[in-house]
């Protein structure tokens, strides 16, 4: 099963699991982490506030969300930046629902969605390119970054948000990381230094680098251990298919929370600018 099929099958889970506040889903029109807001609440919109501080406000602004999910980030940022946002996803279900939501909001002329990979040639150039928890799925992150960065205009910003393992993990945590990567289809998952080197290789200058892990809220370790046993027992014999994909996705999420609880992964926001 490829990543597009994985996300299409996971759609059913995100639709029904609106109470699980580690990751958002169809109910928030986005798939990314709930983070703590200044008022102490946890919201999928916190990341948008952090991103907005680094986005240019320019006439004719064009933004690209590479791995847009259900389009929520485009919808949140469009009123702030103006211009036009393009969202790309490899999931047919996500693209369809994002386009429908754009019509509901009256954004159909300024928020466009396509079923396309971030490894495909993109249409035109952009003042801002976002990749929120999407490049983790790349089989060749350097090549994916190169492909996206060639579409970034001079003076434009590239905003990367993703899980990044810490170096030198002990055996237990290294094993958890391997299971997380397998269940969530993250074949490489570079560390922070790797991403910094890749951004520099594209001629992009790092302007902001922040670990957002302190803003997350993983469940207590005892609860996660119980959930792992329960979900493992329900995992069907035919894995990575139907409910098997959902069960594996849940197991991957548990391993990620355990890694977060131990501080074994960072959840970083990196903002890099193209000179000019």
Structure commentary:
With 276 residues, this protein is an alpha/beta fold. Helices cover 40% and strands 21% of the residues. A seven-stranded mixed beta sheet has the order 5-4-3-6-7-9-8. The chain has a two-stranded antiparallel sheet with strand order 1-2. The model is unreliable at 18-22 (pLDDT under 50).
Neighbour order of strands in the largest sheet: 5-4-3-6-7-9-8
- Number of E-type strands: 9
What number is the mean pLDDT?
90
Taking all Cα atoms into account, the compactness measure Rg is 18 Å
Largest β-sheet summary = 7 strands, mixed
The helix-and-strand class reads alpha/beta
Helix content: 40-55%
- Following the backbone from N to C, one meets helices and strands in this order, namely HEEHEHEHEEHEHHEHHE
Distance between the termini: 42 Å
| Range of strand content | 15-25%
Low-confidence stretches: 18-22
Overall morphology: globular
* Total of DSSP H or I helical runs spanning 4+ residues: 9
């Amino acid at each position: 099963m490829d990543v597009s099929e994985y996300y299409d099958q996971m759609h059913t889970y995100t639709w029904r699991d609106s109470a699980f506040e580690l990751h958002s889903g169809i109910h928030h029109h986005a798939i990314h982490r709930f983070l703590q807001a200044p008022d102490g609440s946890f919201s999928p919109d916190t990341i948008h506030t952090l991103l907005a501080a680094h986005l240019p406000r320019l006439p004719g602004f064009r933004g690209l969300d590479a791995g847009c999910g259900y389009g929520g980030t485009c919808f949140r940022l469009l009123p702030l930046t103006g211009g036009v946002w393009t969202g790309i996803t490899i999931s047919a279900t996500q693209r369809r629902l994002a386009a429908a939501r754009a019509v509901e909001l009256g954004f159909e002329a300024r928020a466009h969605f396509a079923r396309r990979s971030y490894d495909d040639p993109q249409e035109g150039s952009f003042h801002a390119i976002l990749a929120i928890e999407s490049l983790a799925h790349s089989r060749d992150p350097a090549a994916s970054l190169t492909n996206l960065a060639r579409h970034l205009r001079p003076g434009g910003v590239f905003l990367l948000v993703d899980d990044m393992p810490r170096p030198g993990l002990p055996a237990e945590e290294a094993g958890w990381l391997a299971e997380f990567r397998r269940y969530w289809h993250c074949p490489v998952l570079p560390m922070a230094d790797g991403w910094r080197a890749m951004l520099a290789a594209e001629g992009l200058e790092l302007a902001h680098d922040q670990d957002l892990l302190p803003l997350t809220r993983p469940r207590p370790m005892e609860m996660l251990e119980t959930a792992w046993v329960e979900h493992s027992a329900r995992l069907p014999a035919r894995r990575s298919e139907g409910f098997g994909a959902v069960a594996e996705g849940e197991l991957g999420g548990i391993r990620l929370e355990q890694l977060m609880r131990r501080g074994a992964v960072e959840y970083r926001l990196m903002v890099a600018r193209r000179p000019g």
